[in-house]
């Protein structure tokens, strides 16, 4: 029996029950309890066997299900080899940043041999979200769907489907992902691409040694199914299609949207979608394809496709091979990706209204770029002997030794600087094809955060750049909020003409959105959730390289508008998230 070092069992239970009793007085929903065991599990895929970190020995991990407004407790025991945190992606956690999860932002890692209980407060979310590790690259195998059903007495804004199925995309590496990350960060060069993609944990019969394990979804003719689609792939967007079946998108990121009827979807890492499909074709087998979409210049991605089978029940002779989609966009089909993304609109109904902020009090203009950090004696594996980095407004985020939330809440100095700028240091032609000089490519490294007043109305325009010919689509995720994407476009943002195109009537309300290659996107939200909240690109390699920042939303004037008190136990801070105190460029003390 393994011992977990945190607090005594009796002390834990007394605090846990007291917190639960207090919480039951504050919420109207139900309370759910889960136990997650993090441990290495052996898997055989692609003709080889490896050990990978999992939750409860499953890949993907268990589905968490609750109703809108419920509260969920997840007690996480770490029996793995390194520190890990978990994040409840897309869940706002009102005034409750202590349990949001990103390492060195709201907590330090749960160290091997210890445990930590997360409290997840559901509020306005409804639909499909997911949970995943938020430490180093352990998200590769530590993730699962988080399904939020309508509250009692309410229903879907569409006819209730006959069945539901989670469809989760992920990356699979033959090698240990943490070893790959360590090697990449030490060398300063490009990251290693995955060896396959998976649908519900299986690569499918395109890959060697994978035919017998291909995921199959059994369906009945004439029935409609709700697909809860999650993209947990590490570093690339995905197209998805089912042969000869139209898809109807009805939700995204835990909110409903006006129905989009389409033959394919494009979904970025970090995005979730609710999609209806009706089984009304001839009885047979039809391929479900997950294929990468990439619009960058480096061309360094896994050029393969995951396959699953949409399989009709009934009395018929199975075909020799499933039917293949007549159309799914190619790897580099920018037009198809853009066409799909621009169709999203909020439902904007009486039951699901929108409330787009109109009177902006805080405006920011943030550039998104790949750059470099100088290495001594040009000793790194990046361009010109430098280290590849990424940043926002030319700042590459560095993890502090103590998480930002504790430093802020306890007024500890020296761990972050509240000086993240509202605009980049220089204005230039961001989408030019000639941005290779040092004044464009060299970034600075720091732990700089942006302070926001409580209830500030925030507008941020994100500008993609082509520095070092590295322009590509970037899925940006903001913790602690859902926000409205009121506009996007190609080229450099024009602050006179582009605002005239903003959608202030029914823009999509999301937690993750793609900033188009060499283009821009503008979001708005009200900073009504006091706490410390991470914002980052959801490509893991870009996040590791520093394409991140932190927002600190100040308390309001009352207890109800202030950060909740911290739990009695938090994981201790140390410098061994990966393999020791000298882990990487990502953790420094300012």
Task: Write up what this structure looks like.
The protein has 590 residues and is mainly beta. Helix content is 9%, strand content 36%. The protein contains 6 helices and 32 strands. It has helices at 9-26, 177-187, 334-341, 404-409, 438-441, 540-545, and strands at 31-45, 48-55, 64-67, 71-78, 86-89, 115-121, 127-133, 143-149, 163-172, 196-199, 216-219, 224-231, 237-242, 247-252, 255-262, 265-267, 272-278, 285-293, 306-312, 362-373, 387-392, 395-397, 444-446, 449-452, 456-464, 474-478, 483-490, 509-510, 512-515, 519-527, 531-537, 548-553. The strands form 7 sheets. It has a 6-stranded mixed beta sheet, with no helix packed on it. Strands 21-20-25-30-27-28 form a 6-stranded mixed beta sheet. The protein has a 5-stranded mixed beta sheet with strand order 11-19-18-13-16, covered by helices on one side. A hairpin with a 2-residue loop joins strand 14 (247-252) and strand 15 (255-262). It is globular and about 70 Å long. It starts with 8 loop residues before the first helix and ends in a 37-residue tail after the last strand.
- Sum up the overall morphology in one term: globular
Gap between N and C termini, in Å?
A: 41 Å
Name the beta content range: 35-45%
Largest sheet descriptor: 6 strands, mixed
Number of helical elements: 6
> From the structure provided, what is the oligomeric state, counting identical versus distinct chains?
single chain
Global structural class: mainly beta
The low-confidence parts are 1-27, 576-590
């Amino acid at each position: 029996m393994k011992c977990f070092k945190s607090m005594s069992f009796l002390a834990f239970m007394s605090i846990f029950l007291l917190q639960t009793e207090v919480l039951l007085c504050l919420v109207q929903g139900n309370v759910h309890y889960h136990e997650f065991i993090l441990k290495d599990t052996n898997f055989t895929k692609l003709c080889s066997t490896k050990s990978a970190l999992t939750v409860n020995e499953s890949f993907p991990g268990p589905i968490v299900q609750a109703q809108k407004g419920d509260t969920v407790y997840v007690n996480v025991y770490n029996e793995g080899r390194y520190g890990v945190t978990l994040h409840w992606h897309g869940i706002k956690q009102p005034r409750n940043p202590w349990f949001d999860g990103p390492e060195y932002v709201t907590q330090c890692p749960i160290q091997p041999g210890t445990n930590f209980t997360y409290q997840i407060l559901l509020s306005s979310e409804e639909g499909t979200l997911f949970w995943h590790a938020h430490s180093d690259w352990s998200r590769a195998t530590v993730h699962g769907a988080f399904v939020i059903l309508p509250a009692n007495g309410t229903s879907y804004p569409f006819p209730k489907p006959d069945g539901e199925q989670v469809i989760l995309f992920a990356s699979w590496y033959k090698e240990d992902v943490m070893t790959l990350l360590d090697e990449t960060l030490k060398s300063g060069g490009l990251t290693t691409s995955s060896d396959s993609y998976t649908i519900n944990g299986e690569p499918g019969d395109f890959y060697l040694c994978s035919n017998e394990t291909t995921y199959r979804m059994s369906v009945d003719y004439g029935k409609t199914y709700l697909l809860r689609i999650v993209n947990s792939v590490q570093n690339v967007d995905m197209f998805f299609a089912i042969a000869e079946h139209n898809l109807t998108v009805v939700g995204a990121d835990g909110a409903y949207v006006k129905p989009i009827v389409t033959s394919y979807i494009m979904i970025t890492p970090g995005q979730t979608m609710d999609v209806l499909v009706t089984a009304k074709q001839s009885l047979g087998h039809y391929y479900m394809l997950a294929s990468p979409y990439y619009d960058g210049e480096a061309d360094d991605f896994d050029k393969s496709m995951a396959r699953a089978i949409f399989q009709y029940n009934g009395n018929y002779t199975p075909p020799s091979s499933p039917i293949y989609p007549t159309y799914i966009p190619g790897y580099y089909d920018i037009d198809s990706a853009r066409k799909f993304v621009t169709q999203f609109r909020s439902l904007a109904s009486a039951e699901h209204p929108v409330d787009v902020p109109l009177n902006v009090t805080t405006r920011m203009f943030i550039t998104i770029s790949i750059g470099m950090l100088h290495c001594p004696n040009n000793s790194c594996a990046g361009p010109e002997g430098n280290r590849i980095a990424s940043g926002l407004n030319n700042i590459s985020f560095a993890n502090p030794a103590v998480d930002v939330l504790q430093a802020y809440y306890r007024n500890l100095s020296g761990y972050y600087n509240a000086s993240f700028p509202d605009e980049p240091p220089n204005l230039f032609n961001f989408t030019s094809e000639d941005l290779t000089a040092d004044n464009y490519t060299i970034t600075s490294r720091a732990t700089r955060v942006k302070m926001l007043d409580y209830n500030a109305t925030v507008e941020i325009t994100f500008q993609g750049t082509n520095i070092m010919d590295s322009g590509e689509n970037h899925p940006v995720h903001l913790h602690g909020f859902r926000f409205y994407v009121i506009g996007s476009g190609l080229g450099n943002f024009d602050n006179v003409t582009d605002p005239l195109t903003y959608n202030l009537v029914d823009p999509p309300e999301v937690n993750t959105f793609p900033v188009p290659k060499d283009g821009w996107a503008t979001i708005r939200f009200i900073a009504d959730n006091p706490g410390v909240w991470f914002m980052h690109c959801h490509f893991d390699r870009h996040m590791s390289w520093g394409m991140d920042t932190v927002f600190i939303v100040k308390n309001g004037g009352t207890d109800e508008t202030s950060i909740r008190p911290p739990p009695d136990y938090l994981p201790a801070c140390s410098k061994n998230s990966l393999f020791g105190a000298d882990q990487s460029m990502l953790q420094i003390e300012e």
